[in-house]
Write a structure and sequence with these properties.
Elements (H helix, E strand, L loop, with lengths): L18 H11 L4 E3 L6 E2 L3 H10 L4 E9 L5 E6 L5 H9 L12 E3 L5 H13 L8 H9 L7 E12 L14 H25 L1 H4 L2 H10 L9 H9 L1 H4 L7 H13 L4 H12 L5
Parallel strand pairs: 3-6
Antiparallel strand pairs: 1-5, 2-6, 3-4, 3-5
Length: 284
Amino acid sequence: IKKHGDFIKCISFETNAGVLTATVEGLANARGEYICLLDADDIWHSNKLSEVVSCFADGYDLVFHEGEFIDASGNFLNKPVKCMIDDDKIADSIRTFNGGFPMGSSISFRRSMLDLELLISVFNSFKEKKVERSIHQDSAILHTLLSRSDIKIKCIRNNLYGYRMHENNDSLKSDFDNDSKLRKIFDGGLHTSLFATEIYKKSGLYYEDKGIEIGFMKFVYCKNFSLREKTLFNLYKDYYFLLKNNAFRGNKEKITKFIYPLFFRLPVTMRIFFRQIMSSFLPN
């Protein structure tokens, strides 16, 4: 900061306001055209920025890339994070929650392409519901960018970052027996999905692509997600009947908010019983 004070600004909060609040504040203060996200526990390779900037020079607006999992010490685990979808299909795939979502630390974009007012407007509405801290910041930014139909996307098919696996990484833990962890993961997926659909509704894109409604339902019961734990998969299934037709809206919101916490107080045998019932109603 002493050496490059004109280019570096450190923003501090008196209390922990959550990663999305910090990210929005950073975006509001940013002056550069290119924004590159990097979570605190991940790493970039030394050639990452040069390759990303090269893509911007070629006219792309949103760039991400492949990577690899690393352990707590930074050792590579030979577990790649691949781009599995062709560039021309990525946008629709992400918009409709059908996969193709890049890891946060690989996302870079033109600041001029991000409708920050739209993002903040929807974000503030979730603050009123007191659920803003469970929204994934990279998802919020990505769906806001993709609310533009003219955005040009490039996935660099090269390993340019390391995604760290460690004991504090809730999304990668294999122990989902603790109800509080399950609720945190479930809330993150649910509220992030509702945030994205609200972004698309306000932008008008939601009504042009009805597949988003179907994709939303696929997301909440993980039809197109390969999860490591059946426990988490079943938890989403348990709430399918509450979430279909975009629950958490209108009168359904009151019912869902009442029933949702009760599930976690049920004995395991009762949960299994509900899963058996729900399995007969869910699509294969």
